[in-house]
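DM from R.C. (forwarded with permission)

"hey, sorry to bug you on a friday — could you get me a structure for this? deadline for the figure draft is monday and I only need the backbone to look sensible"
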Amino acid sequence: MLETADANIRIILVEPAGPLNVGSVARVMKNMGLHQLVLVNPHCDHLGEEARLMAVRAADILETAKVVESLPAALVGCVRAIATTGDDCRSLPTQLEEPADALPWLLEAPSALIFGREDCGLTNAELNRAQRLIRIPSSDAYTSLNLAQAVAICCYELYKSVVSCQLSVVSCQEESAPLENLEGYYQQLETLLLKIGYLQQHTAASRMKKFRRLYNRAYPTVDEVAMLRGVLRQTEWAIKTYPRETNSDTLDGALPENPTDS
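My reply, with the result:
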């Protein structure tokens, strides 16, 4: 089970600024049987003396950490992703859950656990990349946790799930589609919906968030995403092959352009 968790789960730090934090994260990851560390555009030297000082016997995790330029690049190959946030006041793309409830879900497939910047966390656009969001409950007197502390709590919850066998790891013939496949579908869908007038430039972002929530609940497989993209391609072909008559606002039996939806 520990080997499965290590193979499946990567810890992603977005733009970490403190080498002491990064070193501490490496140490607690090794404590809890995790080794995949990904750093998105780090603002510190993760191989420097300060990071190694805090990592102690986990320097190997620092040395094998993958450094990428963007969060989408960090998520390539992942099927599931959970992001962390300390803010429960702003408008968020999905409901907040507690770590113990949500984190075991990551053990079932190649997954990512995403942590934000020390000073401002993750942006809404970055939170949108995850299917689920967690917040670590804390005292109202001081709600913000240190980055390394937050990682430690989440890694411990994952470790508990593994060693207590709370979750059986099941391999299925049909696996959920990688997140990059879904991103390609979202981009193709948005382009088509803008073209046909269902989306407008000023409202496209908010409307696409709703589509993301819909598909994130469904966990479509690779074949299902391919089918959905095939529908979009066929629609594009039909628009080019059978253009609407210029002297008519509607197609036979079709709804008017840009119908309202409640």
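R.C.: lifesaver. Residues 165-173, 248-262 have pLDDT under 50 and may be disordered.
me: no worries. Residues 222-241 form the longest helix (20 residues).
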